[in-house]
């Protein structure tokens, strides 16, 4: 990967492998976040325009000044099929940084989806389409295209650190980012977590409504006396 931090636009990055992206995409963002230590989730203000939208892929990171989308256009030009563009828009919703035209360009280019900590517009068209867009809000006002930004530099999107090539997974619950070097381990843990939760749900359906750990934790915080049980 290029290490010249004087470049505003870094074209060549190391990405999480397609095989790991495919493996991770099978899990809910919530499962991945749990096994990642309940870290890496983007602020809850960043939501899919439709709860049916899902996305998974390596991060193309973008940093912009509030209200300007010039660097996002640069990211659209260099992103590769399967990438997810994730934008640090500072949570600003005073104007939209993306709409139907840019989303169409991204879809036709094979970009897997867009996560943007800022507002978008053309919500009716985008929410009723099949292209994954996650945003912090809506606003009909358009952006400027006159301020330099950064593409494929480390960013903080919705309070979460994101490096180029990290894994980005989003669904109805929101977005989680997994560091590229940690994805294989997280996928393995996610499968174990899913197996455990599946077994727990099956047990509940069979009449076992009590969580096995509950009494112990209640005693640990003083809600039950030692030896006492619910």
Structure class: alpha/beta
Provide the CATH top-level class. Alpha Beta
Q: Please give the alpha-carbon distance between the first and last residues.
A: 57 Å
Count of extended strands: 10
| Average of the residue pLDDT scores | 95
The number of distinct structural domains comes to 1
Instruction: Give the overall silhouette.
Output: elongated
Q: Tally the helices.
A: 7
SSE succession = HHEEHEHEHEEEEEEHH
CATH topology call? Glucose Oxidase, domain 1
Instruction: From the alpha carbons, calculate the radius of gyration and give it in angstroms.
Output: 20 Å
CATH architecture: 3-Layer(bba) Sandwich
CATH superfamily: Ribonuclease E inhibitor RraA/RraA-like
The biggest beta sheet reads: 8 strands, mixed
Q: What percentage of amino acids are in beta strands? A: 15-25%
Low-confidence stretches: 1-5
The proportion of residues forming helix, as a percent range, comes to 25-40%
What descriptors fit this protein?
230 residues; single chain; two-stranded antiparallel ribbon; Glucose Oxidase, domain 1; eight-stranded mixed beta sheet; elongated; 10 strands; alpha/beta; 7 helices
Give an account of the 3D structure.
The protein is an alpha/beta fold and 230 residues long. It has helices at 18-24, 29-35, 70-78, 100-108, 123-127, 183-205, 214-220, and strands spanning 47-48, 55-63, 84-96, 113-120, 133-138, 150-151, 155-157, 160-162, 167-171, 174-178. It has a single domain (18-187), classed as Ribonuclease E inhibitor RraA/RraA-like (Glucose Oxidase, domain 1, 3-Layer(bba) Sandwich). The chain is 29% helix and 24% strand. Strands 1, 2, 3, 4, 5, 6, 9 and 10 form an 8-stranded mixed sheet that branches. It has a two-stranded antiparallel sheet with strand order 7-8. Helix 2 crosses helix 6 (183-205). The longest helix is centred in the last third of the chain and has 23 residues, at 183-205. It is elongated and about 70 Å long.
